Amino acid sequence: MRNNGVLSRIAYWFRHMTFWKSVFLVLVVAGLYSTYVRFVYGLGAATNLSDKFPWGIWIGFDVLCGVGLAAGGFVVAGAVYVFHLDYYKPIARPAVLTAFLGYVLVVFALMYDLGRPWNIWHPLVMWNPHSPMFELAWCVMLYTTVLAFEFSPMVFERFHMHKAAEVVHKMIVPLVILGIMLSSLHQSSLGSLYLVMPEKVYPLWYTGNLPFLFFVSAVAVGPAMVIMESFFSSRAFHREIEMPILSKLGKVTAVALSVYLVLRVEDMINYHLFSYLFTFNTEGMLFWAEILIGVIIPITMLVIPKIRNNKRGLYYSALFAVIGFVLNRMNVSVTSLERHYGVAYFPSWMEVSVTLMVVALGFGAFAWAAKNLAVFPEAVAAKEPVRPESYEVVLIEDDAQLKGAPSFGMQAK
Amino acid sequence: MKKQVGILVDTTQCIGCMACEDACADRWGFPHTDVHELSCEKNTVVQQYGQTYVPKLCMHCEEPTCASVCPVGAIQKTAAGPVVYDVNKCMGCRYCVQACPFQIPKYQWNKPAPKVTKCDMCYPRQLEGKQPACVEACPAQARIFGYRDDLIDEAKKRIKNNPGTYNEHVFGTTEVGGTSTIYLAGVDFGKLGFPTNLPKRALPKYTWDIMEKIPDYFVWGSTLMAGFWWLTNRKKKVAEYEKELQSGNIPPAEIEDKDQTSGGNDAE
User: Fold this and answer.
1) Least CA distance to B199: which residue of chain A?
2) Interface A:B, Cβ pairs < 8 A
């Protein structure tokens, strides 16, 4: 019966094709082809990587951006459980869900980039505490576990395992504190990766502040991602947007970005970057693009209450912050090294297709979880195991009737 | 401490016969080719810059960047000096390829189970009491194998005894904390394809400045976070209690009782 239900739902999914579903399918099929080429013929056949440019977008975007964009999880969880800012509680679950999915996908994408992915567990037993990559491996592994715990109540509650959910709830404060520590460590370590290359990284991006910059910008962009994702899910699931909460979250982004801006100005002075700033070469232009789009514009928009409290205004300021963040990570990982290596790296279509597949899987997984697990507060209420005698559980074929509620709904007899 | 070995390359002596390239290829089982670029099939090459032939190979740094960045310790600096790679540990992150200041480690991009390739100063041959294959093959004594300290003395002697022939600097004595492969040249090293913007400080130290703080940060940071939790938790409880008081849910008598009992307990 249950199996039959799953099959019929899959059949239903394919019968009712929509525009976004077909986009999803195309991206997954293209990604699977690239997967085949990558693992059968090697990295060289699928990517534009070479000895002269060993790290491409699978590191620059999938890992550096993926981890950073998932920072909303520890920021919001910390605010709610450590700082008792109960105000943010309604968005804690979607934020943790995004973070968990984000980290799972980062590890998934890393399997493509590693030359010998079957050895991915080696840092567990082969230690080198001098390497930021070693520290990253441990923190990402531990933090993904922490996120799995933080996420688990959404599954437990869905399946009415209230004892288990309660056990996790009792551990939540130490878990969240551990999550904050691990996040601050590995978010900054992503920046530390580049500290060892002072002679290679273009001066505009090389600074002893790299780890701090990476951490602060993650704190800024995490909430921005939560804002964007609330907008997406409000559209997809016809929910009300929690505007007062989100605009307050926008303030967090503005404050973090301001700290970030101060650090970057400090670098410009300490490292005498003014001549580079006003050299309008590729690096100079991309640097300004990153600072304007990702820092100046979002701060300006977010400090104006009229824009911050307006749905579209808030959405676009978050969008700018995210685009600027991605630009920054791509600049550090790609732009800043091209001049030294004397090559122009541009990803192959297969690299892009794998990255797009990962993003598509992320969207798909979030949509599925939001529909089927106890993610949003009202959904939590709807999934309480209240089954009065006069009700029976029936399988409802047409999801649309329910508008985002689980397919196993309740109907009066 | 055991004395470390090294290779002195005297570029003024190299005649460009490529015997070292062939000897190296034989040692690793690589094909003989006419491509003089380091690759996953070439661990040493001879490149021509103007009138000068420049043999290139791993510098075997005193504090190797590649070894410091490897998350699993697949690259190690041996006590004897050579920097060696163990494929069985490697997970293929290519941080070594990215980080090496001399761009020495290369990658087998077109294999499904790729390895990093680099010169290991023929460490297995050294263990058998032999010299590195390239040194043995060199007919012009452009590569000399020996203890690093002795090689530096020899290099300085050559500079002193042949005034005007050599650049005063022995490349590898100061760069990135020193290297086990050192070079003599008649011209500026920048003209021979050597990086000239390298700091004297060993590169791993730039990362260690931050990495060494992690254990302390973890302890202090989590304590601080726990403190914040305690503070805000108490603040919340006090606020709740005050609200109750104001709403009059707790009768004043009960509060007095509470105070008296606790006072009484103290007295006992």
Assistant:
1) A199
2) 168
Domain assignment of residue B55, given as a range: 5-211
CA distance B189 to chain A (A): 16
Per the structure, the count of domains in chain B is: 2
Taking the CA of residue A39 and the nearest CA in chain B, the distance in Å comes to 6
Nearest chain A Cα distance for residue B73, angstroms? 6
What is the pTM for the complete model shown?
0.89
Instruction: Give the C-alpha separation, B178 to B104, whole Å.
Output: 16
Question: In A, which residues are within 8 Å of B209 by CB distance?
Answer: 195, 208
Query: Does residue B16 contact residue B47 with C-beta atoms inside 8 Å?
Result: no
Answer yes or no: do B169 and B251 share one domain. Answer: no
pLDDT bucket at B48, cuts 50 / 70 / 90:
very high
Contact residues, chain A, for B211 at CB < 8 Å: 129-130, 132, 135, 192
pLDDT in tens, A188-207: 999 999 999 999 999 999 99
Shared domain for B163 and B98, answered yes or no, is yes
**B227 and B199 within one domain:** no
Pair (B17, B136) in one structural domain: yes
Domains in chain A: boundaries: 20-381
pLDDT for position A381: 44
Nearest to A135 among B195, B211, B226 (CB): B211
Given an 8 Å threshold on Cβ–Cβ distance, is A117 in contact with B39?
no
Sign of CA dihedral B182, B183, B189, B193: negative
Q: B106: which chain A residues are within 8 Å (Cβ-Cβ)?
A: 51
Pairwise CB contact (< 8 Å): A123 & B95 = no
Residues of chain A contacting residue B113, judged by C-beta atoms under 8 Å apart: 115-116
Q: Residue A407 — pLDDT band, cuts 50, 70, 90?
A: very low
Q: What angle do CA B27, B33, B35 make, to 5 degrees?
A: 115
CA angle, A121 as apex, A119 and A124 as ends, to 5°? 135
Cβ–Cβ under 8 Å, residues A88 and A77: no
pLDDT at A390: 46
Q: Identify all chain B residues contacting A119, using CB atoms and an 8 Å cutoff.
A: 72, 89-92
The verdict on B70 and B170 lying in the same domain is yes
Residue written as tokens 């909430």?
A: A223
- A236-282 pLDDT, tens digit each: 888 888 899 999 999 999 999 999 999 999 999 999 999 999 998 99
pLDDT at residue A97, as a whole number = 93
**Per-residue confidence at A9, pLDDT binned at 50, 70, 90?**
confident
Top CATH class, A20-381: mainly alpha
pLDDT in tens, A366-404: 989 988 888 876 544 444 444 444 444 555 555 454 444
| Nearest residue to B208 (alpha-carbon basis) of B78, B82, B67, B79 | B67
